[in-house]
Amino acid sequence: MLRFNTTLLLVASFMVLGSCADNGATATKTASPATAKVIQPVPQVDSAVHAFMRKHNVPGVSIAITKDGRLVHVKGYGYADVEAREPVTPSSLFRIASISKPITGIAFVKLAEEGKISLDAKVFGTGGILGTTYGTKPYSKGITDITVRQLLNHTSGGWVNDNNDPMFTNPTMTADELITWTLDNRPLDNTPGTAYAYSNFGYSILGRIIEKVTGQTYEQYVQTEILKPLGITSMQVGGNTLADRKPNEVKYYGQQGGQPYIYNITRMDAHGGWLANATDLVKLTAFVDGFASKPDVLKPESIEQMTTASTVNPRYALGWMVNERNSWWHTGSLPGTFTMLARTSGGFSWAILTNTRTTNPDFGKDIDRLVWTAINDSTTVWPNQDLF
User: Greater confidence, 359 or 27?
Assistant: First the structure.
C-alpha cells in the first residue's frame, strides 16, 4: 500500500547508471572505540533497498530508521562516487532538497514558542515583518495580506512550483534580488489563505524572515539554535557545482539527460538547500516527534501547531505533510537526488537519501514502500540497541 504521497515536486530526465553494493558491514556509531557499536543487519530492509537500486539504477542510498526513539538501523548502500568507487557510509552527506522545509518549519515554531515571532504576523508592507525592504514598485493586490503561517502551509496565494517557479529563474541573482524581482513581476494567483499552491519561493521568503528576526543568517540560526544543541554538527547548506562538493558529500547523477549541477542550490537554503546525513535527520525528528521516548525540544502545543494543516489542504501543515493517522513526512526532489523523511504514529521514523532521481512514476512509490515492507513483515526483528 502506498502510505505517503510521494509526488515528485520537480520533473527532469536522466541517464542510466548504478550499483547495488552494500556498505553497511563496517558502519559504526560515531563514538570512542570502546563504545562503538556494530550495526546489526535487518535483512528485510537490505533486500528491499537492493531491489530498489537494481530496478531504478541508483548509485547510492543511505537509510536511518528509529523505533521508539532508538536508532535501530543505519546503513549506506552503493556508491557516493561511482567513478572513484567511494562507498556511501552513514556519514555521507546528501542534498535533501525539500526536506529542508520541515527544518524551516521547526525553526518558526521554535521562534513563535519563544515569543520572537507571531505565525499570524503580516510579512510585507507597513507593519509587516519585512516591511517594504523588497520590491521597487507598489505591491500588487494581496501581497500585504500574506502571513507567516500562509507561507509555511503554502496558502500565500502564488508562486507555485511549476515551470515558472521563481526559484529556478534568474540563477545569478541573490535571494534578496530574486524576492524583489518576483514581487515586482509576479502578482498573486489567489487571495492569500484561500488556495493551496506548493511554493518554494514562499519558503525562500521565510528564510529572510528568520534573518530579519534573529540577526543571523538562516543557516547560522538553524545550526546554532536548533542543530548544535542536539549534537548535530555536519548539516549545512550545499554548494552549486561539482567543484563545490563538501567533505563527505556524495556525487549526484542525472538520468536520461538530467543535470544535477545546473541550479543555485545555495540560494535554495530555506526551501531546498540543506545537506544532511540520514542519522542527523532522524535524530532531529526524534526530538520534535511528540513521543515520550526522548525529551522534545518543543512544547506539546507547539508540536500540535506545527502538524496542524490548513483548512484548504488537510494534508499539509507547517513544513510537514500530514495525514489522519497522525503520521508526518516530507519528500525532497531535485535533479540528482530524491529523499524522504517520515515519522509514523506507530513509533517508527526514517530518512532515505539517494544520489539520483528518475522520471519513472514508480520511483517515489518504491521509496515510500522501502521501510513499510520491513515494518509490515511479521518476521522482521528490529535490533534492541540504540545507535545514536
Answer: 359
